[in-house]
């Protein structure tokens, strides 16, 4: 798996689109443990990007 980009590499909007696409692809079903881990990583990346954007803006 490629390394997760740092918040400076992806905007919160880009990450949000990734989160929405990830969840949409699952069709509303419950996430598996592995999927839940991916989702939590995306949320953490989004949160870090939001913090980075607030500090830089």
Tell me briefly what this model is.
The protein has helices at residues 12-24, 33-56. The chain has 57 residues and is an all-alpha fold.
List keywords for this structure.
57 residues; elongated
Written overview of the protein:
The structure is a single chain. By secondary structure, the chain is mainly alpha-helical. It has a domain at 12-24 and 32-56. It has helices at residues 12-24, 33-56. The longest helix has 24 residues, at 33-56. It starts with 11 loop residues before the first helix and ends with a helix. The mean pLDDT is 88.
Derived from helix and strand composition plus strand pairing, the structural class reads mainly alpha
- Overall radius of gyration: 12 Å
Q: Strand share of the residues?
A: under 5%
Net shape: elongated
């Amino acid at each position: 798996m490629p390394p997760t980009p740092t918040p400076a590499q992806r905007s919160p909007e880009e990450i949000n689109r990734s989160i929405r696409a990830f969840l949409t692809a699952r069709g509303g079903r419950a996430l598996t443990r592995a999927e839940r881990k991916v989702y939590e990583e995306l949320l953490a990346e989004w949160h870090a990007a939001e913090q980075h954007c607030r500090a830089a803006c």
